[in-house]
Amino acid sequence: MSLYKKLIREHLQSLKPYSSARDEYSGKEGVFLDANENPFGSVAGKDLNRYPDPYQWEIKEKLAALKNCKPEQIFLGNGSDEAIDLLIKAICEPKRDNMIILPPTYGMYQVCADIQQVEVRKANLTGNYQPNLEEIARIVDELTKIIWICSPNNPTGNLIEGYIIEKLLNQHPEVIIVIDEAYIDFAEQPSYINRLSEFENLVIMQTFSKAWGMAGLRVGMAFGQPELIAMLNKIKYPYNLNLQSQRIISEAIDNVEKKDAYVEKILKERLKLFKKLMELGIVRHIFPSDSNQLLVKFTDAKAIFNYLLDKKVIVRDRSNVVLCDDCLRISIGTQTENNKLIEELQAYN
Ligand SMILES: *Cc1c(COP(=O)(O)O)cnc(C)c1O
């Protein structure tokens, strides 16, 4: 029996999904009188009167070439948040199964699990923000279905060590190991997409929201075995990615070098900001970052956060988060924005 035959919730395996007009006829040519669309045009926007491709094949062909994988290994969603939600829905039986998160980490894993009444077990990262393998081994059991690894991690900014990820993949072959690579474009390390053929239990998530600069569009990606991706497609809303998003994403992929140029710029700004922050007396520590955020430990994070708010500089207060005492998370801005931040911090006393 295949891994996903075992892992996917039983009632979903026999679920009969909605069959859309575009499922039943996927050809491009013809007189389309099958979807109750307005044949004349759109009240606003350009040519939005037709339903979009439910499986976004054109984008997936381009992405597959860019990411060196197969189109059938790609799921596209309304932000990676949709992929997170659907993965839990597909695999975890409410009030029975559990999943493991590694705090401090991205908040949506827990929220999606809570909504679906799936138990969340926590194995806090170690002092240098790496997974605690002993603690994970202690809390994992036969009802653990997913372990969420965010690398580079949010809010700490660092990559998770490759040998630790491989250990988890090997030690728990029947648990899905998700690597959330929302910030991978900012890191030196290659994506784990290259390893999909080695590990059946591996799932990778990425997004167009960060390096690609398209957070407002809401498009995220998941990469995994075709069997799992097919299930995510089966349980998603039929037209989860709207036509406008599909057009813009397709155009973005054709211009990937623009994304790379943004990354270069952001990395340069990160280094400059890092150096300037280091010179401040109120900064106690800056954690090494492989992403577009700096986690900074201050003398008094709460007071500095409120002071900055008052100056209309908005950073993220993470001081109440486990292992982030007195820390603010600062997204890398433009040169002007970063200078404003530094000026206000220099004036703080
Ligand atoms: C920003 C972020 C996402 C993102 O999501 P979208 O829903 O695609 O905007 C996912 N994971 C992490 C860790 C993030 O920081």
From TrEMBL:
Q: In which pathway does it act?
A: Amino-acid biosynthesis; L-histidine biosynthesis; L-histidine from 5-phospho-alpha-D-ribose 1-diphosphate: step 7/9; Lipid metabolism
Give the UniProt record's GO annotations in the biological process aspect.
L-histidine biosynthetic process
Which PROSITE patterns does UniProt cross-reference here?
AA_TRANSFER_CLASS_2 (PS00599)
Q: Which cofactor does it need?
A: pyridoxal 5'-phosphate
- Family annotation (InterPro entries): Aminotrans_II_pyridoxalP_BS (IPR001917), Aminotransferase_I/II_large (IPR004839), HisP_aminotrans (IPR005861), PyrdxlP-dep_Trfase (IPR015424), PyrdxlP-dep_Trfase_major (IPR015421), PyrdxlP-dep_Trfase_small (IPR015422)
Q: Which residues form the Aminotransferase class I/classII large domain?
A: 42-344
Question: So what EC number does this one have?
Answer: 2.6.1.9
Annotated keywords: Amino-acid biosynthesis, Aminotransferase, Histidine biosynthesis, Pyridoxal phosphate, Transferase
Domain of life (superkingdom): Bacteria
EC top class named in words: transferase
Q: What is a GO molecular function of this protein? A: pyridoxal phosphate binding
Q: Which HAMAP family match?
A: HisC_aminotrans_2
Summarize subunit and interaction data from the UniProt record for this chain: Homodimer.
As for family, the record states: Belongs to the class-II pyridoxal-phosphate-dependent aminotransferase family. Histidinol-phosphate aminotransferase subfamily.
Name of the protein in its database record: Histidinol-phosphate aminotransferase
Organism of origin is Jiulongibacter sediminis
Q: Which gene encodes it?
A: hisC
